[in-house]
Amino acid sequence: MNKSILTQEIAYAAIQNFFSVKPFVLFATGTSCAVDINFGMWSLEQWLKKQIPSLPLSDSQMLEWDGVILALGKSKDFEAAMNSINDEELLSAVITKTAEHVLAVDGANASEILLGTKEWPAINLFSRLVNALPAENRVLHVATPNYDMLAEYAFTNAGLNYITGFWGGVIRQLDWLQSERKMTYAEDVLVGKRSQRTTRLKNHIRLYKVHGSLNTYVFNGNVIETDLWDEPPEEIERLMITPGASKYERLHEYRGALLAEYDKAIKSHQSFLFLGFGFNDKQLVNNTIVDKLRNKKSPALIITRDSNDRVEAIVKESANTWLVCKSEIDDSTRICNCQYADWLVLPGKQLWQFDKFVTEILGE
């Protein structure tokens, strides 16, 4: 059976229709790299190559690190190369040095995003999604593997309410129920001729930081959130899941804190929006999501600057998944859906840039 030709009218109508149902949103490194390229894996790789050998490593630790360097010489897959690390002290050093790098880049951009002199690229799209939440379901579920806090700064500047599952004061405890209660307010409504006070829920984002964050730690066996430290005290462990095989062990160890609520939310959603996503994280884009896209034909939209084989394999096997990305030869836009014969190319349009996507597809 011959496939039909994808036109701009067909693509725009399908993508606009996608937003008629509230999606689960997943955003990744591409959103941060659009602000500062130093958030990218290449920059982290160069930083670690410089920092780790300068530490007082044992012979066995140096051998493991040499294994990382050797693997990187054969392949550009940084995550696979990090599989060479098994030593706990070396892993701790990698986490510490990764945090130092991300903290520096995050700090260089934080004030400008908070003050609005620099824009996090996806903020207009998030504002549209949050403001359009229906009265019967005022929560936008969002997940990210990013350690940085650019999204949180942008949400704050834009006046978008969000929770990360923690509540309390200087040191916040993990408790999603209490955290969500911060999003409620009292309102007087007329019931017949009488005024009755009721509790309402504010439109807000439920943000799952599934690989930890710059401000999450483990203290006395409990996961906490605090903005007290750039460098925590020795007895407090920073909770960041770094690339490599060891990340799956740490994710399992802290699954309840990092992934339990995320897993529930994924199961309850039938529509998915991916922003700046490369589909290289099997823990985040898990079998549940893949099954929904491929077998249950759940609607999905991927907006990313650069496509890759992993992304296109998902699109090829998922009837209701749309891909919007940059052309391989210039800054034009390509759009793809497996039900159509070939890519749609839109010369002169940069819809892979989130702000331009919002203006072009969703309107002013």
Secondary-structure class: alpha/beta
Count of helical regions? 15
- In whole angstroms, the N-to-C terminal distance is 39 Å
Report the β-strand fraction as a percent range: 15-25%
Major sheet: order of its strands? Answer: 3-8-2-1-12-13-14-15-16
Q: Outline the biggest β-sheet.
A: 9 strands, mixed
Q: What's the helical proportion of residues? A: 25-40%
Radius of gyration, in angstroms, nearest whole number: 22 Å
Provide mean pLDDT, rounded. Answer: 90
**Count of β-strands:** 16
* Subunit organisation of the chains: single chain
Low-confidence stretches: none
User: How would the global form be characterised?
Assistant: globular
Folded structure, characterized:
The protein is of the alpha/beta class and 364 residues long. The protein contains 15 helices and 16 strands. A nine-stranded mixed sheet has the order 3-8-2-1-12-13-14-15-16, with helices on both faces. It has a five-stranded antiparallel sheet with strand order 4-5-10-9-11. It is globular, with a radius of gyration of 22 Å. It starts with 7 loop residues before the first helix and ends with a helix. The mean pLDDT is 90.
List the helices and strands and how they pair.
Elements: H1 8-18, E1 24-27, H2 29-33, H3 41-51, H4 59-74, H5 78-81, H6 88-115, H7 123-131, E2 139-144, H8 150-158, E3 162-163, E4 166-168, E5 171-174, H9 176-181, E6 184-191, E7 194-201, E8 204-209, E9 212-219, E10 222-226, E11 237-240, H10 246-253, H11 255-258, H12 260-268, E12 272-275, H13 287-294, E13 300-303, H14 309-316, E14 321-326, E15 333-336, E16 344-346, H15 354-362
Parallel strand pairs: 1-2, 1-12, 2-8, 3-8, 12-13, 13-14
Antiparallel strand pairs: 4-5, 5-10, 6-7, 9-10, 9-11, 14-15, 15-16
Helix pairs in contact: 3-6, 6-8
